[in-house]
Amino acid sequence: MERIGRYEIDGRLGEGAMADVYRAHDPGISRTVAIKVLKPEFRRDPDIVRRFLREAQAAGMLSHANIATIYDVGEAGGVAYIAMECIDGRPLDELMKDGRFPAERALKIGRQLADALAYAHKNGIVHRDIKPSNILLADGSTPKLLDFGIARFGQEAAAEKAALATQIGQVIGTPRYMSPEQAMGMPVDARSDLFSLGVVLYEMVTGKTAFTATGLATLAIQIAQAQPIPIDRSVRDCPKGLKFIIEKLLAKKPDSRFQSAGDLRDALQRELEALTADEPVRRRGLALKVKLPLILGTAIAAALGISTTMVLDRQSETLEAMTLTSGSSITGFITGNAAVYAAENAGLPPAMQDWVPLQAFVATAARDGNVARLVVTDEHGVIRAASDPALHGTRYQPPIGQAKAADVTRTAKGYRFVRPITYAGADFGKVDLLLKPDTLEAAITNTRMLLGTLVVVVMCIVLATALASAQMISRPVRRLRRALDDAAKGDLAFRISHNRRDELGGLMDAFNRMADAIEPRLDRDDSAALLHTRISTTPPPARKAA
Q1: Within 10 A of 13 (CB to CB), how many other CB atoms are there?
Q2: What does the pLDDT read at residue 156?
Q3: What are 420's strand-pairing partners?
Q4: pLDDT band with cut points at 50, 70 and 90 for residue 443
């Protein structure tokens, strides 16, 4: 199909049980429209075509922001069609597959739909097929009602055309959104649309269908007699006002529902304003049994955190100083031994020098697991002994930024100690020792773990003690509160019994003293009031004759 009347068909948009929908172009005014065309099997029945056009013409009188506008109705080449607004949006049933809607969004959509129904009902049009697939959301927030009047036509045709019962039953929409009177074949009015909208709202808020039966007969009975699962069981944060509105819409009797879509719109608007009102939220303060442990725990945690940080810093400094002392001692020992060998070889020709004993000594010293690198040079800067034998006889390259004199440097690889070899006041070379930081870091890590465990244990003990203390305080506070409430009601025929010797015990004693002082006054007041109500039995004194 390439053209219907003056409309140029661009492509198929979808199909229903009785009609196909195409995207088309109106060249006269250069407008994109959606064309709904009866399927071939229905075009041959003049009654169906006549009703299709009549109901579409009635719906075409509606002009509302939340109703898909009908531009044109007619026949072309024996094909009945409806040209309507082409809406870029997603059907509500597809959106609901992503999960339930927040209460505020459901209220906004419901209010707009109720306003559209109020407008339609005022113009004498009852939709009769309110369901999620007949609601398109433009821009994700503006609902558009589709198929006004088409559902009414479908239901009436089904009653008159038994042969087409199955197909016509499909066009009136998914039966689970019907009202009880609609499901039972009884006369319906505008309140039937409100029930269907209530089912849609229920599904939007809970993410579940209100009526779950699968067969048509059992579904009709369920709609007419059974109540959907209470909203509270599915959603705990649904506002009470919205819950009341949905439950009222789902009333089985039309007289128990909202009596007009306008009333529903106003109710949804009030609930939306209450939900989005910019007012400070009043909350009850934390209970004493929670507040006290929280304050105490926070204070203890802060104190422990500061103390632990200070201890770790001080210990790191101490361990590092110990490492430097140990490294200096090892370097001094190696330097002292190397000086003897260096002095012996210093006056000999290179061919007669013997560095093997020094190399053996350095190899033995390098076996220490803390030694990462050890180099011994002569006075000419030639490496004569090293932990790595491949360096023997090579030129010594001092570390970048390393001082020529004795020095200690903290590097990424560890602690480097450089010390000159002196003997009898002469310089015979230097020793370069690199110690691994593994032992120091392991000690610091172990200390952190121990301190962390200590902090956790202390916090647990403190919190447990705080909770127990808070319970000890909250119980007498509750007793005092009940006593004061009873006293406010005029009931002072009791006293608080306790064995406490602390400040709370003093408060209870003060309450008892207050009760002792006030109760007699209340008794006197009651007695005086009673005397005023008694009838005197003493005769009045006789009057003297004038």
Answers
A1: 14
A2: 46
A3: 430
A4: confident
Q: Is the pLDDT of residue 328 over 90?
A: no
- The span from the CA of 50 to the CA of 302, in Å, is 82
Q: What fold is seen in the domain 3-276?
A: Transferase(Phosphotransferase); domain 1 (1.10.510)
- Cβ pair 278, 452 in contact under 8 A: no
* CATH fold group of domain 294-442: Beta-Lactamase (3.30.450)
Using an 8 Å Cβ cutoff, are 257 and 181 in contact? Answer: no
pLDDT of residue 288: 65
**Which of 189-193, 311-315, 323-327, 527-531 tops mean pLDDT?**
189-193
The residue with greater pLDDT, 58 or 491, is 58
Q: Confirm if 94 and 151 have CB atoms less than 8 A apart.
A: no
User: Quick check: helix, strand or coil at residue 329?
Assistant: helix
Q: Is the pLDDT assigned to residue 115 strictly greater than 80? A: yes
* Residues forming CATH 3.30.450.30 domain(s) in the chain: 294-442
CATH 1.10.510.10 range(s) for the chain read 3-276
Beta-bridge mates of residue 181: none
Report the alpha-carbon distance of residue 37 to residue 39 in Å, rounded: 6
Number of helical (H) and strand (E) elements in the chain, helices listed first: 16, 14
Answer yes or no: is pLDDT of 74 > 60.
Answer: yes
Interatomic CA distance for residues 27 and 431, integer angstroms? 96
Nearest to 500 by CA among 519, 477, 518: 477
Q: Count Cα atoms within 13 angstroms, Cβ side, for 99.
A: 3
- Read off the pLDDT of residues 408-422 as tens digits, 9 standing for 90 and up: 888 778 888 988 988
- Alpha carbons within 13 angstroms on the beta-carbon side of residue 420 total 13
The residue type of 385 is: A
How is residue 361 annotated by DSSP?
Answer: H
Question: What's the sign of the alpha-carbon dihedral 398, 402, 403, 406?
Answer: negative
Catalytic residues: 129
Measured between alpha carbons, how far is residue 473 from residues 336, 469, 483, 508, 514 in Å? 72, 6, 16, 13, 22
